[in-house]
Amino acid sequence: MHYAPYTHEWYMHKALQQAQLAFEKEEIPVGAIVVMQDKIISRAHNMTEQLNDVTAHAEILALTAAFNHMGAKYLPDATLYVTLEPCHMCAGALYWSKIGRVVYGASDAKHGYQHFFGGNNAMHPKTEIISGILANECAALMKNFFKAKR
Predict the structure, then answer these.
(1) How far is residue 40's CA from residue 78's CA, in Å, rounded to a whole number?
(2) Among 135, 113, 116, 142, which residue's Cα sits nearest to residue 30?
(3) Is 59 a catalytic residue?
(4) With the CA atoms of 106, 134, 131 and 128 taken in that order, what torsion angle do they form, in degrees rounded to the nearest 10?
(5) What's residue 118's pLDDT?
(6) N or C, which end of the chain has less CB nearby within 10 Å?
(7) Contact 135, 107 (CB under 8 A)
(8) Reduced to 3 states, what is the DSSP secondary structure of residue 137?
(9) What does pTM read for this prediction?
(10) What span, in angstroms and rounded, lies between the C-alpha atoms of 5 and 149?
């Protein structure tokens, strides 16, 4: 499917490409990208199995790469696109990064940050949250992954 460039759908499609890489490596298929001024400055996917590290979530890896790219520890002008609602660990990292916007695809009723924080925003007060972008496509990849594991 083709999406107009520089739209939320276009960027989420790029994050889905990262999630597909995770799927192919038998990692939980979550992908993330960080965007500044319409340019992708980092890309990542879950690598918890490959790195034997429970903190190697797509969001954490994408943030670290973005910090390194920018030479800064805060990203107030950046947007993180991630295929799945961040967990509470990732929400904490996003809070401390002061990221300007978080855009996610599928909700995660079991492990998403909203489950842990009672629907309250765990992100920085200035962080804009947008959810549901390509949610069906993001959720389908997760369902297919776990279906194949059974």
Answers:
(1) 10
(2) 142
(3) yes
(4) 130
(5) 66
(6) C
(7) yes
(8) helix
(9) 0.95
(10) 34
